[in-house]
Amino acid sequence: MSDSKIIAPYTEAGIAEAVREAAEKAAPFEIVSGATKRDYGRPVKAGSVLDVSALSGIVKYEPEELVLTVRAATPMREIEAALAEKKQMLAFEPADWGQLFGTPAGRATLAGVVATNACGSRRVKAGAVRDSVIGCRFVNGRGEIVKAGGHVIKNVTGFDLPKLMCGAFGTLGVLTEITVRVSPLPECVAFLSVRGCDAEAGLRVLREAAAMPVDVSGLAYVPREDTAHVRVEGTPAAVAEKVLLLGQRFSDRDCVTVEGPRANGLFRGLSDGSDFICDDADIWRLCVPATNAAAAVKESRPRFWYADWAGGLLWLDLPADEETAARLRAITARSGGHATLMRAGADARARFAFEPEKPARADITRAVKAAFDPKRIFNPGRMFEGI
């Protein structure tokens, strides 16, 4: 941020004033909170930075109602510590991608998680970030403070706006406050490792486990280990029964059960992209139907990869070039899904970061952008040219 003018309001009202001034001057800025994902997405075309990191802290926490409201730039480590004291958690298992982009772990904020839809392995059980966000406050491109959603789960009024902010990469508004639904921590967690599986067999194990009545909370395949990992949770008795059922289903294979903190640690590392932290490889994330995962891996020809979400999410070590982008997007054109260039140099991200939108969807995107940010001052170009 050293080369840009930094605007750092301390209050929501201050942010609104800064936005109004920027709109009047048609002077766009880049929005940051923890600044852990500035190199995720296309480079922002702006000469100023709106630093909202001062908007931090828990506003209201109602453990008995399973609802938490925080200021948008509250660090995830603070949120997770507060929830853990009450034996609760964010169900979608937020991912911390900071180390992938050269920043320390633990600096991610809830605003950044929401803006980038950074959900982890528990997505197969709990859904995406948008499924836990039930309300928010934000400043639109006119400098107006908008409240959307509610503080209680029963109030469904305005749910669409909070969900719209999820995965928008800060292009529609400046989040100032977020209300999320929380969940009880499971009493017990374990995973069954099914070893000695090639890619096709390992991915098939994940799909078969997903179809079983064991309520899985993690489904990953790690090819360097030739191992499929299936996580389950619940009471100790329930977990024991689930592990038994899984063991019986895959009794013809080499299976090992792991319980306790290691069960969460493995999946947290996969969610955070930990296998990519110590190298400088370009990273693609390919979302496809789980049934197409094995074929997608074979066609994409990655140097290194692993699968999460039962194969619905593939982390791929592939070069950030025209040929790779065309190959991956040919895969998504046939099977559905999308290919995202998560980490690469600025020039490559400007060209390939996000799946190009079809004309009809692009028209909707432009219309939504015009409604929320008519002067295009929020993170211009972060997702698409002119948006």
What does this structure look like?
It is a single chain. The chain has 387 residues and is of the alpha+beta class. The protein folds into three domains: 1-185 and 356-387, Uridine Diphospho-n-acetylenolpyruvylglucosamine Reductase, domain 3, CATH 3.30.465.10; 188-262, Alpha-Beta Plaits; 274-352, Alpha-Beta Plaits. The protein has helices spanning 12-25, 76-85, 110-116, 123-126, 160-165, 199-210, 236-249, 261-272, 293-300, 322-335, 346-352, 359-372; strands at residues 5-7, 29-32, 48-51, 58-62, 67-71, 88-89, 133-139, 145-149, 174-181, 183-184, 188-195, 218-222, 227-234, 254-259, 283-287, 304-308, 313-317, 338-343. A five-stranded antiparallel β-sheet has the order 4-5-9-7-8. It has a four-stranded antiparallel β-sheet with strand order 12-13-11-14, sandwiched between helices. β7 (133-139) and β8 (145-149) form a beta hairpin. Mean pLDDT is 94; it is low at 152-159.
Poorly predicted regions are: 152-159
The total count of helices amounts to: 12
Main β-sheet, in a few words? 5 strands, antiparallel
Whole-Å distance between the termini?
A: 22 Å
Radius of gyration: 21 Å
- Please indicate the percent range of residues in DSSP E strands (runs of 2 or more): 15-25%
Number of domains: 3
The CATH architecture of the largest domain can be given as: 2-Layer Sandwich
Number of strands: 18
